[in-house]
Amino acid sequence: MTPAAVAPDGFGARLAAAVAQRASQVVLGLDPDPRRVPGGAEGARAFCRRAIAAAGPACVAAKLQLASFERFGTAGWEAFERVAAAAADAGLLVIADAKRGDVDVTSRAYAEAFLRPPIDALTINPSLGGDAVAPFVEAAAASGRGLFALVRTSNPGAAELQDLPLASGGLWHEEVARLVAGWGAPSVDSSGLSCLGAVVGATVPGRMAALRELMPHQPLLIPGVGAQGGRPEDLGPAFGGRAAGALVSASRSIIFAESPRRAAEELRTALWSAFESS
């Protein structure tokens, strides 16, 4: 879908500039597991800061999984804020992986809670429909921040609902993709990207080209590379001809690697190669 007019530069332009400056599409997933990261909230904070220092130079963004911090209560929220600030100080875009979504009044409150410094983008659940998504899009467009709506996720159980056939034809997640493209169309800026992106799992590479066609202006946030089995070389169609067309999130395969710096750099190189050969 092509918007009638180009919006003022916003999240899309910011994202494109960051990807170009860093020559990276790698998102450092920060989801410290207490079974492997002892010390409660403070242990999680220290672990994430070390991961940022080690792997951050090869990345363009950090994605903080809210549940990994919320489990610690008030101390966890403080740790989240401090890790987000550390990621921003390291020159990374900060994505809050919260998957929020509710009726419009509540969505507006969620937008106010998350679409503010040092957070640059938020993951959202669009299953309540357009009136619930609208407050997020309005807040993101007004603040130069971004959103990534769940479209086709990477977990095995996603197929149970997201791949259901519709009576009108096509699959459920394809209709969600069409809606996301429409909701995000007014915010497409000079980068050719909208402030409203989409989450599409690397574990379904056969869907990537079709979803990119349905969402030509959406930056894609792609989980599932590494521990879940997704491969960088399968992701060429995701970029849509733009270096910033796709960001690839990797968590366990980087933060628990023997050398997080080397793991992040290897993924950075593989993704840039996939983009250039697409």
Number-wise, the strands total 8
From the spread of the alpha carbons, the general shape counts as globular
* The level-1 CATH class: Alpha Beta
Class inferred from helices and paired strands: alpha/beta
Q: The biggest beta sheet, please? A: 8 strands, parallel, barrel
CATH topology: TIM Barrel
- End-to-end gap: 21 Å
Mean pLDDT: 95
| Number of domain modules | 1
Number of helices: 11
Major sheet strand order: 1-2-3-4-5-6-7-8
> Which consecutive residue ranges, at least 5 long each, have pLDDT under 50?
none
In CATH, the homologous superfamily goes by the name Aldolase class I
CATH level-two architecture: Alpha-Beta Barrel
Oligomer state equals single chain
Percentage of residues in helical conformation: 40-55%
Element order, helices and strands?
Answer: HEHEHHEHEHEHHEHEEHH
Task: Describe the structure concisely.
With 278 residues, the chain is α/β, with parallel strands linked by helices. The chain has helices spanning 11-22, 40-55, 66-70, 74-89, 104-114, 130-143, 159-162, 172-184, 208-214, 252-255, 260-276; strands spanning 26-30, 61-65, 93-100, 121-124, 146-152, 196-200, 220-222, 246-250.
Structural summary, described in words:
The protein is α/β, with parallel strands linked by helices and about 280 residues long. The protein has helices spanning about 10-20, 40-55, 65-70, 75-90, 105-115, 130-145, 160, 170-185, 210-215, 250-255, 260-275, and strands at about 25-30, 60-65, 95-100, 120-125, 145-150, 195-200, 220, 245-250. It has an eight-stranded parallel beta barrel with strand order 1-2-3-4-5-6-7-8, surrounded by seven helices.
